[in-house]
Amino acid sequence: MEIIERGLAGPYEGIMITPRSGGDVGVLVLAGSSGRIETERSRVLARQGAVAVSIRWFGGPGQPAGICEIPLEIFTATVDLLLDTGVRRIGVVGISKGAEAALLIAGLDPRIDAVVALSPTSVVWANVGPGIDGHTHPYRSSWTWRGDPMPFVPYDDTWSPAEPEGFPVAYRTLYEHSRRTFAPSAEAAAIPIEQATGELLLVAGADDRMWPSLPFAEELATRRSAAGRPVRILSSPDAGHRLRLPGESPAPASTSYLYGGSSGADAALGAVAWPHILQTLQIMP
Questions:
Q1: 115: part of which helix (H) or strand (E)?
Q2: What is the C-alpha to C-alpha distance for residues 170 and 265, in angstroms, rounded to an integer?
Q3: At a CB cut-off of 8 Å and minimum separation 6, what does 197 contact?
Q4: What would the pLDDT profile of 219-247 be if each residue is shown by its tens digit?
């Protein structure tokens, strides 16, 4: 399908990609902890018939250098932008920290009809990197809503990686350890996905070594089901954190982080999930 790309002007750098014939479904595409503009994923979705928008939500001009007290309103404002195009349905596709944001705004903005959360978390975490003040400590929430910080789980600074210094690090045990250490905070920081009225698809690899996304997805599904709302989980024992959708390039190798999985396993889970993603978003190519 032929697509048209244009940059977004205004307070947030970004891109909007539209099928030349137009589209009925608008999708906000959120990157993980890179905060980058997800151009390739947006193109893949637009070629299926979606109006796809992705923005840089930290690290840009006037934004915090890290994921620290990011206003969730920047995402709901992008929903406004999508609705201005005349779409009839709004979806959000996020991965990792982007999935954390997607799950949060799904419960805050009733205009969101569907969420696809790749490698998700079930709780809100502390900041990753510095805030607008340039400081990383004391820990603060990753997100705010209407000026108030969302409840969050801090990191346990007594944790140390198992890997030798200078080698890529698996951070999964940091999240597991911090959650046990700050159990009351974790209970307060649970993402209220049961409040979201839209459809929900969770995709997670059991070999995720960045954080335990499959147990997180199972917790989300339990709370969602208890509220009588629909949810689907797709998983694979071999996939890791960096899931890939059909048509996307392999993720580059990292010298800093261990993500788990493999290029093939991550792509295989993405391929299995792909028709379910299109169905959840109601994109009809």
A1: strand 114-118
A2: 18
A3: 110, 229
A4: 999 999 999 999 999 999 999 999 999 99
Global pTM?
A: 0.97
Is residue 123 within 8 A of residue 179, CB to CB? The reply is yes
Residues near 6 by beta carbon (within 8 Å), at least 6 away in sequence = 15, 16, 18
pLDDT band, very low/low/confident/very high, at 17 (cuts 50, 70, 90):
very high
Name the burial class of residue 205, with classes exposed (0-12), middle (13-18) and buried (19+) by CB atoms within 10 angstroms of its CB. buried
Considering only CA atoms, which of 258, 11, 214 is closest in space to residue 122? 214
* Burial (0-12, 13-18, 19+ Cβ within 10 Å), 148: exposed
Please report, for residues 26, 56, 68, 132, 177, the alpha-carbon distance to residue 115 in angstroms, rounded to integers and kept in the order given: 12, 19, 23, 29, 28
Domains of the chain, each with CATH number or no CATH: 3-281 (3.40.50.1820)
100, pLDDT greater than 70: yes
pLDDT higher than threshold 80 for residue 10: no
What is the reported pLDDT for 195?
95
